[in-house]
């Protein structure tokens, strides 16, 4: 089944350019700067129709997907074949750059009208960003017409050019004419460099009077139909085997698996026609990937045969910048099929050196050192490989961690203390100012205490002393008056280093 009517190539593709036809109408050539494709010439500096100020300003470029200068935007996907022509119009009136091509064609019938079919696009480059323009067609030195403008909102770095079909007709006045193609801006201002215009042209066909052969575009696996008329005898051959005839009628059915050129030998002339084969899209985002914290990765699925892109965030570019963990997917399609793929991106944390601290623990307790990080290898001083290590002994410990974003070694010093709390309170108290046992405080209290309070009551339960400081003892007074001799009740509350609370109670005898 035919998918797209690709192009019309008229019989007469020969070096002498007879039969009202262009040599190399698809503008095929080696990608280069300032050189015309085979069969064509540059419209020279000094030509009456060329507005260039200098010779270097009259040199269009053979352009394709790979160049000649992709970084400046001088590249793109041709309408057909592998290359096309792009040329500048920029500068002040009487432009500094005016880059076009031309060819001399014979075999015209004076008085007859000949349409010229071609495809045009706005190419742009980094400092020539005009988004609209067309082509001026001159027959010898007479303007045949200026094509309707094409427009583009694409970035100068986007290779997916927008091609538009245009037709300009002229009436032959001679049997031979030189036909010129020059870019033409649709606005008068060319003062700023950004207002300069770069236009592309491809697939230039000179329509004759009934002698033509039609190419085809198919999906892989379909049958292409090549049809010609205007001649008496027909012979077909593949370009790669031009002497092996594969058909002898005006129609040829073929099933190429790649884009293939075919010769048509007729009693009029020899033509070359293309069957373009479009593959169903196939994409591969690759295996799941890790990125370091703060970095990004570009997921790029560009392919010339893909028409549309749709990512899971609903963006439609051929690439996606990713800087966070997640599952990312893309669906692409063209006239021949659809393809999709998914990838997992994991962001690896940048680890500082503090994934543990020097610590003190009580005898009989344990402490967990280390910390888990995903996709990380661990090595402890005892050759173990887990993310954490449980310790219950004094010593020096070290951990080495290694992943795609980190390689660190940290050390830990662990001390073991006897954390049992010992509290001794005296049972006799003699505040008589003789310098012996004049202040009631603990006779012994271990150091592992974070909080301490003491309360002393008389036999009736009245509080005669309270303190939240171990250093602040009772002098045997209440409201600056000496308390009577007798029995008193004490209560001590305290907390250990780990927040465990305790209480002790007892009696004391006050004597003087």
Walk me through the topology.
Elements: E1 8-9, E2 41-42, E3 61-63, E4 84-90, E5 97-98, E6 101-106, E7 113-122, E8 132-139, E9 142-146, E10 150-151, E11 164-171, E12 176-185, E13 197-206, E14 212-214, E15 216-219, E16 224-229, E17 234-238, E18 251-254, E19 260-266, E20 270-278, E21 289-292, E22 297-300, E23 308-311, E24 319-322, E25 326-334, E26 337-348, E27 359-362, E28 367-370, E29 377-380, E30 388-391, E31 395-402, E32 407-417, E33 423-424, E34 428-429, E35 444-445, E36 449-457, E37 463-467, E38 477-478, E39 481-482, E40 486-496, E41 501-510
- Write down the overall geometry: rod-shaped
CATH architecture of the largest domain: Sandwich
Largest sheet: 6 strands, antiparallel
**Overall average pLDDT:** 86
- In total, the number of domains comes to 5
- By CATH reckoning, the class of the largest domain would read Mainly Beta
Terminal CA distance reads 122 Å
Report on this structure.
Helices cover 0% and strands 45% of the residues. The protein has 512 residues and is an all-beta fold. Strands 2, 6, 8, 9, 10 and 12 form a six-stranded antiparallel β-sheet that branches. Strands 3, 4, 5, 7, 11 and 13 form a six-stranded antiparallel β-sheet that branches. The chain has a five-stranded mixed β-sheet with strand order 34-41-40-36-37, with no helix packed on it. It starts with 7 loop residues before the first strand and ends with a strand. Residues 1-19 have low confidence and may be disordered.
């Amino acid at each position: 089944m035919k998918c797209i009517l690709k192009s019309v190539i008229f019989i007469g593709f020969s070096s002498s350019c007879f039969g009202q036809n262009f040599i190399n109408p698809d503008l095929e050539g080696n990608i280069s700067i300032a050189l015309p494709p085979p069969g064509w010439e540059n419209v020279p500096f000094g030509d009456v129709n060329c507005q260039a100020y200098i010779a270097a300003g009259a040199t269009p470029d053979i352009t394709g997907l790979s160049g000649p200068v992709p970084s400046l935007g001088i590249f793109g996907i041709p309408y057909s074949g592998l290359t096309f022509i792009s040329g500048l119009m920029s500068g002040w009136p009487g432009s500094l750059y005016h880059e076009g091509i031309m060819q001399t064609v014979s075999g015209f019938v004076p008085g007859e009208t000949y349409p010229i079919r071609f495809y045009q696009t706005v190419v742009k480059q980094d400092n020539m960003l005009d988004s609209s323009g067309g082509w001026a067609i001159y027959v010898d030195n007479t303007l045949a017409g200026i094509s309707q403008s094409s427009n583009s909102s694409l970035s100068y770095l986007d290779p997916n050019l927008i091609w538009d079909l245009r037709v300009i007709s002229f009436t032959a006045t001679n049997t031979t004419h030189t036909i010129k193609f020059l870019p033409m801006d649709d606005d008068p201002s060319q003062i700023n460099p950004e207002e300069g215009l770069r236009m592309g042209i491809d697939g230039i066909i000179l329509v004759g009077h009934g002698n033509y052969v039609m190419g085809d575009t198919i999906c892989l696996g379909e049958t292409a139909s090549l049809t010609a008329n205007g001649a008496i005898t027909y012979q077909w051959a593949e370009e790669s085997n031009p002497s092996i005839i594969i058909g002898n009628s005006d129609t040829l059915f073929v099933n190429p698996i790649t884009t293939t050129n075919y010769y048509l030998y007729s009693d009029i002339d020899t033509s070359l026609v293309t069957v373009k084969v479009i593959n169903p899209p196939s994409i591969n985002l690759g295996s799941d990937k890790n990125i370091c914290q703060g970095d990004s990765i570009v997921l790029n699925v560009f392919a010339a045969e893909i028409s549309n892109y749709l990512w899971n965030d609903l963006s439609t570019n051929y690439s996606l910048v990713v800087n966070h963990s997640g599952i990312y997917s893309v669906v692409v399609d063209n006239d021949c099929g659809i393809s999709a793929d998914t990838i997992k991106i994991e962001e690896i944390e940048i680890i500082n050196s503090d994934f543990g601290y020097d610590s003190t623990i009580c005898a009989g307790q344990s402490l967990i050192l280390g910390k888990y990080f995903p996709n990380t290898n661990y090595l402890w001083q005892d050759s173990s490989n887990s993310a954490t290590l449980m310790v219950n002994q004094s010593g020096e410990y070290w951990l080495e961690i290694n992943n795609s974003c980190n390689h660190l070694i940290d050390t830990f010093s662990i001390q073991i203390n006897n954390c049992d709390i010992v509290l001794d309170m005296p049972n006799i108290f003699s505040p008589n100012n003789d310098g012996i046992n004049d202040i009631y405080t603990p006779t012994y209290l271990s150091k592992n205490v974070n909080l301490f309070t003491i309360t002393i009551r008389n036999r009736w339960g009245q509080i005669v002393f309270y303190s939240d400081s171990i250093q602040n003892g009772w002098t045997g007074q209440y409201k600056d008056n000496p308390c009577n001799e007798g029995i008193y009740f004490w209560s001590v509350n305290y907390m250990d280093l780990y927040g465990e609370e305790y209480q002790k109670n007892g009696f004391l005898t006050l004597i003087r």
